[in-house]
Amino acid sequence: MQYLVSVIDDKIEPGRTDRQPAISEFNERLIAEGYWVFAGGLADTDAATVVDNRGEQAVISDGPFVESKEYLAGIWVWDVPDLDVALELATEASKVCARKIEVRPFR
User: Given a cut of 90, is residue 21 above it in pLDDT?
Assistant: First the structure.
């Protein structure tokens, strides 16, 4: 089963910035255990562009879709046997990257 694992940061109380070595080590373990599908960090929300083409003309606007103190800072996609394994890994991931983690299955 594949899960989207979202890393949630906070503009008011951001996660620590010294976590990259620990994150890299965690990622290497995910790869070695066969759980890794994809991962990536995202640019700050100031770099976001929203495209809405539901009307007569496309509307393109700068900035994030939603203004919020919390934002999506990065993602993993994991292929694990079940939700229990995903939550166990997410618990470790939260500690490793010093941020909240959201786990959602793909349909």
Answer: yes
Q: Is 69 helix (H, G, I), strand (E, B) or coil?
A: coil
H/E stretch holding 77 reads strand 70-79
Region 36-60 average pLDDT: 94
Give the C-alpha separation, 62 to 46, whole Å.
8
| Angle of the 83-97 helix axis to the 20-32 helix axis, nearest 10 | 160
Q: Which of 81, 102, 76, 75 is nearest to 1 (CA)?
A: 81
**pLDDT over 90 at 68, yes or no:** no
Please state, as a whole number, how many other Cβ atoms lie within 10 Å of the Cβ of residue 33.
Answer: 12
The pLDDT-based confidence of 64 (bands split at 50, 70, 90) is: confident
Could you tell me the two tokens for 40?
């990536």
